[in-house]
Amino acid sequence: MSLIVAALGGNAIIRPGQKGTIQEQFDNTFESMGHIASLVRAGHRVVLTHGNGPQVGFIMIQVEAARGKVPYVPLNVDVAQSQGSMGYMIAQSLVNQLKDHHLDTRVAPVVTQVLVDPDDPAFEHPTKPVGPFYSREEAGEFERCGHIVVEDSGRGWRRVVASPRPVDIVEAGVIRELVADGVIVVACGGGGIPVVEEAGELKGVDAVIDKDLTSSLLAAEIGADVVMFLTTVDKVSLNYNTPGQVELDRLSVEEARRYLTEGQFPPGSMGPKIQAAVEFVEQGGKRAVVCRPERVVEALEGRGGTVVVE
């Protein structure tokens, strides 16, 4: 029986072409949780993490629209709000799926703070996309408001914010205790609420931490056997979306690092997942897997996805 940290990508919550209504998000989450329930039914222990790009973006839009009417809410609190609402949605959907699978495993979402270095150079160079995709005209309006907006992998324009590396997970000990007690934990939503330590006290900062790097760190800190990155593709590919595309069943850490250096895995796409996979394996993890949510059981058994090993 493996302990698995499964990182849900945005496609598990909001599908391409959808508006992202609450009903759409609940429907998509319920479907995705069916695949997680299959892991539990197979005897594995699971900790779930998840992205929050569109959701925290929606909250940021609401904050901007309410400026002057209610007190301003900083980004770190926006991330906390998204953790709470998405943790509720994921936990409820998973509990309902577990019941349908005749399982009574308990589920608990944990609002999670993640320590970052205040001197991380990322604060000087914002790169993390947040929120929905915009047209070039809509993006221009955000630029005029002082936000940084970039084109994202040919899919449209998005706001970007600072994305410092995760250093430590404040609630890791609590998560370990819950896992040891047989609880499925939903944690580190959106990469965690970014905090720094000043004079021995924690303080929130405005940033968004990459959820894949945080998932890898969490997996290492709680002694997970496997970390799984659930995304929109069956396998990791070289020369992605070109006539020379080659799908990979297996990657060694050495190969993965070489391909990262060669630019095969872009920072705004597969790059963070491969980097996080490499770091997890190098810290003693057995393996990392990249696959679609519906292929989790097959991928864990070596019959799908891409596995990264030492």
What does this structure look like?
The chain is globular and about 55 Å long. Helix content is 37%, strand content 24%. α6 (211-221) packs parallel to α8 (271-282) and α7 (253-262) packs antiparallel against α8 (271-282). The mean pLDDT is 93. α1 links the parallel β1 and β2. By secondary structure, the chain is α/β, with parallel strands linked by helices. It has 9 helices and 17 strands. The protein has helices at residues 22-41, 53-65, 75-100, 136-144, 172-180, 211-221, 253-262, 271-282, 296-300, and strands spanning 3-8, 45-50, 107-109, 113-116, 128-134, 148-151, 157-161, 166-169, 184-186, 193-198, 201-204, 226-230, 236-238, 246-248, 250-252, 287-291, 306-309.
Write the layout of secondary structure elements.
Blueprint: E1 3-8, H1 22-41, E2 45-50, H2 53-65, H3 75-100, E3 107-109, E4 113-116, E5 128-134, H4 136-144, E6 148-151, E7 157-161, E8 166-169, H5 172-180, E9 184-186, E10 193-198, E11 201-204, H6 211-221, E12 226-230, E13 236-238, E14 246-248, E15 250-252, H7 253-262, H8 271-282, E16 287-291, H9 296-300, E17 306-309
Parallel strand pairs: 1-2, 1-12, 2-9, 3-9, 4-10, 12-16, 15-17
Antiparallel strand pairs: 4-8, 5-7, 6-7, 10-11, 13-14, 16-17
